[in-house]
Amino acid sequence: MALLSPAVAMPAKAPRIVPDLRKHRRVPVVIPGRFMREDRKEYPCTVQDISVGGAGLISPMKVLINERLIAYFEQLGGLEAVVTRVYSDGFAVQFKISAHKREKLAAQITWLINRDAFPEETGRQHERFGTAGRKAPLKAEDGVIIDVDILDVSASGASVGTAARLPIDTPVMLGNFTAIVRRHHEQGLGLQFTEVQDINAVRQSLIPG
Question: Which residues contact 52 (CB under 8 A, 6 or more apart)?
Fold first, then answer.
């Protein structure tokens, strides 16, 4: 009888997974994207709902349960994922990301929700301040660092002067702030911070003095 005790005790651990998964409630969004399979070929998809734990995707491409993918979504960047369910018109994935990436994703999803709720306030919704030709390092995901001229800043983003043309939706670091390349302009790049910042903190960090 003693041999049965561990077997009886083990199922008690299983229900602990359920609330952990369900606490990441998915929110409906529509985001174009693509995903790369293990054969390194890319295919189009559209996000129909998302949370920091995973997403539901619409795609004509048939995938396999437990298949590992690299998904790339506009405004969110690249995410490692594994297929958990397959539908007639798409599939669901669970993200395999670090705690730091999860926090960043949570901020990006929050921004997306607010953007959809208040579309007229997106883009340049915060007051911008000139910077009198200040410079700052702009670091891309591959580790390359570019010195850029800060043209103006706001609580939600910055415009920087540079000859570099990083691809739209590229994640970057401007000084100590995580951001995403949102547009190209004649003088350089328009960046959006992954979360709204305290403008005083932005000014003190990027344009001290």
Answer: 24, 95, 102, 105, 106, 109
What is the distance in angstroms between the CA of the first residue and the CA of the last residue of the chain?
A: 75
Is residue 92 pLDDT above 50, yes or no? yes
Evaluate if residue 44 carries a pLDDT over 70: yes
pLDDT confidence tier of residue 15, bands split at 50, 70 and 90: very low
For residue 168, give both structure tokens. Answer: 């739209």
Compute how many other C-beta atoms are within 10 angstroms of the C-beta atom of residue 31: 17
Q: Would you state the structure tokens that stand for residue 89, as one six-digit string? A: 């018109």
- Name 13's Cβ contacts closer than 8 Å, sequence gap at least 6: none
Q: Is-contact 174 166, C-beta < 8 A? A: no
CATH architecture of structural domain 131-206: Beta Barrel (2.40)
**Residue 161 CB partners (closer than 8 Å, separation 6+):** 148, 149, 150, 151, 187, 188
User: How do the domains of the chain map onto residue ranges?
Assistant: 13-119, 131-206
The model carries a pTM of: 0.50
Residue 203 has what pLDDT?
A: 80
111, 121 contact by CB (below 8 A) = no
Average pLDDT over the chain reads 78
Query: What is the three-class DSSP state of 78?
Result: strand
- Asked whether this chain's domains 13-119 and 131-206 adopt the same fold, the reply is yes
In words, the CATH class of domain 13-119 is mainly beta
- What per-residue confidence (pLDDT) applies to 68? 96
